[in-house]
Amino acid sequence: MTEPLLKEKQDNSANEQLPESVGIGGTLRALRISRRITVSEASQRLKYSVRQIESLEAEEWSNLPEGMPLRGFVRNYARYLEADVDSVLVLLDNAVGSTKPPRVVVAPGVSGSSVPGDEVPMAAESTGRPWGWFIIILAILVIAAFYAVDRGWVPESWLIFDWLKDIANNE
């Protein structure tokens, strides 16, 4: 661990370097203790149980979720401790294997150039007429307005055009 995990720079005499053998749990525990935060304070702030935080600091992986939930848990805990999140996630990946989300493979027949950065859009893009619904809704509103004028539901003082007044008075 050649890079400091704390974002802010500290005095070297006050900051003791952790040995290389300390894993992610020991690193997070040391960061929490250096911030003078108790496990119960971290639990209340992050909405994780005390048991989960203690399991993470003890590196008891069987008591913790796997994959992306574990990655999110560690990311939130590292942010709370004001640690370098990327470095902590690298330590996590070294300890338990990759917790990154699986790569999305582009389906056969879809050109790779249409998907920038190997990312597939989450929702299908509309290829239809985006104005279609707008026109339908506008037509319904116009029909409803003429119906209201014809039934006399609209006060005559609101009708600014003579032809609308004629429609309203044809009863």
Task: Tell me briefly what this model is.
It contains seven helices and no strands.
Question: Which helices and strands, and how do they pair?
Answer:
Layout: H1 24-34, H2 39-46, H3 50-57, H4 68-80, H5 85-96, H6 132-151, H7 162-169
Helix pairs in contact: 4-5
Structure notes:
- The chain has 171 residues and is mainly alpha-helical.
- Among the domains are: 24-96, 434 Repressor (Amino-terminal Domain), CATH 1.10.260.40; 132-169.
- The chain has 7 helices and no strands.
- The chain has helices at 24-34, 39-46, 50-57, 68-80, 85-96, 132-151, 162-169.
- The longest helix has 20 residues, at 132-151.
- Mean pLDDT is 76; it is low at 8-21.
Essential attributes:
47% helix, 434 Repressor (Amino-terminal Domain), 171 residues, single chain, mainly alpha
N-to-C CA distance: 88 Å
Helix content: 40-55%
CATH topology of the domain at 24-96: the name is 434 Repressor (Amino-terminal Domain)
| Overall mean pLDDT | 76
CATH architecture of the domain at 24-96, by name, is: Orthogonal Bundle
User: What is the H/E order?
Assistant: HHHHHHH
Q: Sheet with the most strands?
A: none
DSSP strand content: under 5%
Which structural category do the helix and sheet elements fall into?
mainly alpha
Shape: elongated
Compute the gyration radius: what is it? 31 Å
Name the CATH superfamily assignment of the domain at 24-96. Answer: lambda repressor-like DNA-binding domains
Total number of helical segments? 7
Stretches with pLDDT under 50, minimum 5 residues: 8-21
DSSP, total strands: 0
Please identify the top-level CATH class of the domain at 24-96: Mainly Alpha
